[in-house]
């Protein structure tokens, strides 16, 4: 009888131990992610503890068997996961999730920004998509960039979609965007700009005016050539968007739907009714399509334009000043009928 009991325990106890070890191995090293929430995205900020991360995983029911996560994290000495943007997939085990946090194996994020009226606005658009605060990004954007110094700096950062690590440093962010601007300016495009009598930065300044003048892709190249024609003849650009920009420099936040005759006389280096030639820098961040509209502007002889009330969003072009005045009177009557006086 005693031999039978000894034999029984000799079989059962090792079997139970093997089963327990097998269960433990499965909890730690087998796939352990809830398929209903995978892939799961997690943003970890600097200084967040592994216990806080564990609490988040518990709350969102990410792990099927969560107990092993803290066990293995403690065994490996993980106190603070490296900051970053992580994606937990359904094939991951608790062990691989811990290893990911320890090594900082984060996934880059796609960051997009479009045109902006200031570097501060660019910084804000970037910061809200990344871990950095906008003031740090702004300081990095304000660093001098060769070819786009001073007032030209607004043209140094080409709006586009970028990939960054979520915790990328401000200097890294600014430099990558600037390098994209450099890459846009291929030798052939630089040559096209030179043929127009412009540097890349100056062409960006003109492109920013074209952007503000027209939102229609098919209208912009015609607007661009008109401004180029005026520059060639030594005429003032007399671009209404530059007047609005000058007004907003003087009174931030002012809304201008109609440029008044008195506005044309504002003394400001960006007011192209006041100065001759290009303003000292862009009036917004020029986008790629606007740059190409200037570079590829089709030839025509127009020197005057006015918003077209018969085709809202487009311009009525003219060769002569008298023809322009007729177009201008039509637009003025339209504004009056709409009760737009400012």
Secondary-structure class: mainly alpha
Spatial shape:
elongated
Unreliable spans: 6-25
- Which range best describes the helical content: under 10%, 10-25%, 25-40%, 40-55%, 55-70% or over 70%? 40-55%
Q: DSSP helix count? A: 13
Percent of residues in beta strands: 5-15%
Beta-strand segment tally:
6
Question: Can you list the strand order of the major beta sheet?
Answer: 1-2
Structural notes for this entry:
This protein is mostly helical. It has 3 domains: 15-103, no CATH class; 109-184; 187-337, no CATH class. The protein contains 13 helices and 6 strands. It has helices spanning 2-29, 50-59, 67-75, 94-103, 119-127, 134-141, 170-184, 187-195, 200-213, 220-232, 240-250, 288-295, 321-337; strands at residues 40-44, 84-88, 109-113, 160-164, 304-307, 315-318. The strands form 3 sheets. It has a two-stranded antiparallel ribbon. It is elongated and about 85 Å long.
Comma- or semicolon-separated keywords:
342 residues, mainly alpha, two-stranded antiparallel sheet, 13 helices, 6 strands
Please write out the topology:
Elements: H1 2-29, E1 40-44, H2 50-59, H3 67-75, E2 84-88, H4 94-103, E3 109-113, H5 119-127, H6 134-141, E4 160-164, H7 170-184, H8 187-195, H9 200-213, H10 220-232, H11 240-250, H12 288-295, E5 304-307, E6 315-318, H13 321-337
Antiparallel strand pairs: 1-2, 3-4, 5-6
